[in-house]
Amino acid sequence: MSTNHPTNATLEPAPAPPRRRVLADLTPLRSSPDYRRVWFGQSVSSIGQQMTAVAVAVQVYALTGSAFATGVVGLCSLIPLVGFGLYGGAVADRVDRRKLGLIGSAGLAAVSAVLSAQALLGLHQVGVLYAAVALQGGFFAISSPARSAMIPRLLPPEQLPAANALNTVSMNLGMTVGPMLGGLLIASYGAQAAYLVDTLAFAAVIYAMWRLPALHPTGTPGARASVLEGLRFLREQPNLRTSFLADLAAMIFGLPRSLFPALAASSYGGHAGTVGLLVAAPAIGALSGALFSGWISHIHRHGLAVLAAVAAWGLSIAGFGLTGGHLWLGLLLLAVAGCADTVSMIFRNTMMQVAAPDEMRGRLQGIFIVVVAGGPRLGDFESGTVAALTTPVISVITGGLACVACVLLLAARRPAFLRYDARHPTP
Fold first, then answer.
1. 221 has pLDDT over 80
2. Mean pLDDT along residues 105-109
3. DSSP-H helix ranges across 292-326
4. Are the beta carbons of 107 and 79 closer than 8 angstroms?
5. Most buried one in 154, 204, 330, 362, CB count within 10 A?
6. Nearest-angstrom CA–CA distance, 88 and 363
7. What mean pLDDT is predicted for residues 172-190?
8. Residue 29: what pLDDT?
9. What DSSP designation does 66 have?
10. Please, are residues 402 and 253 in contact by the beta-carbon 8 Å criterion?
11. Is it the case that residue 15 has pLDDT exceeding 70?
12. At how many degrees (to 10) do helices 126-154 and 358-389 cross?
């Protein structure tokens, strides 16, 4: 049975063997059976969900022959993510998070089963695919804040940086392995095979949620958890607010993913697989950063680490824009940017989990979902607009430099954020 760990405990990591300073620290997996089951379940289901994402895109394009219709899939997912993200966080601060996570996982499994059935029956209805994707986004937005907010209740505070690194490994495994397996299954057995594997994969996370103890929020019993209260709390907590602003700066100014097709054509020779390489490079870097994150638990100045990582992201992106057609150098810089993003994410999540009171964690995770879902879309608009007014290369360079400028501005405006010490967390 898990125990609840106080949020004001001192983050004093236990001495670790030298090898843990290089490779990811597996202590959370060894020390907590509950966390181990949750991590394994989420890893398996993440791979399955990425397989489903590929299968949906393949099916929509096969039915319509339209790139626009395929792009609408992303919109169908984005709207419920943003619309229900904040609400899901408020619900997570009011009910048993175990039950909410269980309901969300079961709902996602049911949607995958519906997708499998429609493929097997040959319905050939794009509307069914759009509706299923929207339901997926809604179930994810409702349950994800609960799943994230429960982690600090399963582990002691000193293990949270390592746990967040392991969660990043899980996420990036899904993003790299999932599409490859999905492509192989679809090519060999059709889209229904990918959907069916995804449905079965949810058994692992449903089992993990089932085995958890009750995880009621620790706030006042019966108190109403409002979305506005969560937004007011974030506005009044300068360290947490600064961590969100740093993330937004990176995503809005330093994420040129919408320019990858244009850059592949204009700067890198336009080979068929170039866009795929450009998309994959940050994910590979992120996975590498998480796998070699053993040093993370020994860093106490989390605020300084966040700003340094975001600055490294911006400089890497600006450098990517200056590669002048040298593809492998560009891929290397994108991988460095992905690694920096992983470091920033680990420390930002740890700050949110440790510095915020338990009764606010769900709502903060809900806000985080909205930022993660909406920030990259704003980044697509920003980079595309600047590229239209100038060139794609200039857009990438100026975006990276603007990200660095935002970091310097945040450091100047919030010197206390630079002094944030995980051993004495303050929101």
1. no
2. 94
3. 302-321
4. no
5. 362
6. 8
7. 84
8. 93
9. -
10. yes
11. no
12. 130
pLDDT for the residue 8: 41
Specify burial of residue 288 (Cβ count, 10 A radius: 0-12, 13-18, 19+): middle
Query: Do residues 361 and 149 touch, judged by C-beta distance below 8 A?
Result: yes
Q: For residue 414, which of 282, 239, 256 has the smallest C-alpha distance?
A: 239
Flag whether pLDDT at 222 surpasses 80: no
Residue 250: is it exposed, middle or buried by C-beta count within 10 angstroms (0-12/13-18/19+)?
buried
Query: Which of 312, 296, 400, 298 lies closest to 348, judged by CA?
Result: 296
Q: How far apart are CA 317 and CA 397, in angstroms?
A: 7
Unique residue bearing structure tokens 């990043």: 168
Residue tagged 């108190």 (tokens): 223
Mean pLDDT of 189-209: 92
Contact 28, 35 (CB under 8 A): yes
Identity of the amino acid at 265: A
Alpha helix (H) ranges present in 65-216? 67-92, 97-121, 126-154, 160-189, 191-211
| 165-179, 245-259, 366-380, 389-403: the lowest-pLDDT one | 366-380
114-117: long-range contacts (C-beta < 8 A, 24 or more apart)? 115/52, 115/55, 115/56, 115/195, 115/198, 116/192, 116/195, 116/196, 116/198, 116/199
Are residues 293 and 165 in contact, defined by beta-carbon separation less than 8 angstroms? yes
Which pLDDT score is estimated for 2? 41
Chain-centroid distance, C-alpha 65: 30
pTM: 0.79
Length of the chain: 427
